[in-house]
Amino acid sequence: GRAQYSCFPNNKGGIVDDLIVYKLSNEEYMLVVNASNMQKDWEWVSSHNDVAVELENASDQYCLFAVQGPKATTVLQKLTDVNLSKIKYYHFAKGAIAGASDVIISATGYTGSGGFELYVKNAEAKTVWDAIFEAGRKEGIKPIGLGARDTLRMEMGFCLYGNDIDDTTSPLEAGLGWITKFTKEFTNSEALKAQKEKGVSRKLVGFEMIDKGIPRHSYILENEAGEEIGTVTSGTQSPMLNKGIGMGYVKTEYAKSGTIIYVAVRKRKLKAEIKKLPLVTV
């Protein structure tokens, strides 16, 4: 089966949430949203269900394991008869893994490092968890938290809802024009189409620090003259680049790769350079 990254546009030009849509059959789809927005998204979908679609909130029935990295296929293949090497990026298969049945094995992830996301029924989750760590013992598998994942997704330029996109940011401003097609009508499509034709006034960009320092969420971005041109939405120290990196919105005229900008850190101005995303290629 196939999966598609997408978003729920709201009525004001912003984004309710971003999500992955799984096509399970011609008449059955699974929407995977951000856990922190689960109730918000359920209410949004329910309130916009004007064609009597049968809806079920199955969030509390499943666990999600993100087995990521270049060794993920080797490790997981020990636990399933499904040929994992045949599952293309943003495709999935259903099958047994570590004795658990009907697991959705999805070639997706939020790290840019390759791997799979496994949707496992709660009753079988501990068995699968233990089996994954036993299978990956030789390869040095480790449980990794959200901090590491956040660093990886920033190196790739992946948006984080609540930071880089939210109810006030347009998908076009956020560089998500590739999921904003106007071949059919959708919520606020006319306004977004008009925005595309007119052009956006700001764009989400990635940047690398030239001066030593780590950009943080809400720091002001300035031009050489000290004029405010935007705001940092995400920032961290990149282990791969050994320097500070960030994402943020800047006025469109400053969005070109190679443009020098400055991050206002207390009373200092730290030099940075706009870079084409992803910041790290693996």
TrEMBL record:
Sorted alphabetically, which Gene3D superfamilies does this protein's record hold?
A: Aminomethyltransferase beta-barrel domains, Aminomethyltransferase fragment, Probable tRNA modification gtpase trme, domain 1
Q: Where is the GCVT N-terminal domain?
A: 1-184
Domain named Aminomethyltransferase C-terminal is located at 202-279
UniProt entry keywords in alphabetical sequence: Aminotransferase, Methyltransferase, Transferase
EC annotation from Swiss-Prot or TrEMBL: 2.1.2.10
InterPro entries registered for this protein in UniProt: GcvT, GcvT/YgfZ/DmdA, GcvT/YgfZ_C, GcvT_C, GCVT_N, TrmE/GcvT-like
Q: Name one GO cellular component term.
A: cytosol
Q: Which Pfam families match?
A: GCV_T, GCV_T_C
Query: In its UniProt entry, what is this protein called?
Result: aminomethyltransferase
Q: Can you name the source organism?
A: hydrothermal vent metagenome
